[in-house]
Amino acid sequence: MRNCSIMALALLVLTGCSPWKVTRKADSNPIAGKTSFGLRDLDWSSVWVDGVPEEAFLNNNSDWQRDWPGNKSTGAAAFRKAFAERLTGGPLTLLTAPDPTGNSPTLKPSIVELGTGGWNPAKVKIALQVIDAKGTILEEVTTVTKGEGGNFESRFAEAAGRAGENLAKYLQDRAN
User: Given CA atoms 142, 33, 77, 157 in this order, what sign does their dihedral have?
Assistant: First the structure.
């Protein structure tokens, strides 16, 4: 089993598969030459949880309602922290305030799907849109990650953190 895992990993590396999927790519690279980006908060407006819209999930799972705001906050913080840490020390930086010149693209992360997993890993799909000063979506990329072990909050934080790392890596790769 271990040899199969090593072979699968080697195949993944050799084939150049990335942990993200580009769903919209600009004709010319809107990230090339940019060194700073605005990062919006993680958007939850269209999330599906365990196969249903968030509202329906909460209506059908009253035991989740009390902890849900805290779980969302923990996941969003883990995403932002991992995203920022991946960029630390490199040529790309995140702005702490909007760019008044409009030269820095804005990054809009949105959580698309969340699988709570029960006793299994939590799974998240997060999209990242690159937006210009006019609000036009220039590019969009998604990543799907898992978090294992512990309670839901820790599994979700792990999955969201991995998503943050993946999407920051996309930004770094695209900036080159």
Answer: positive
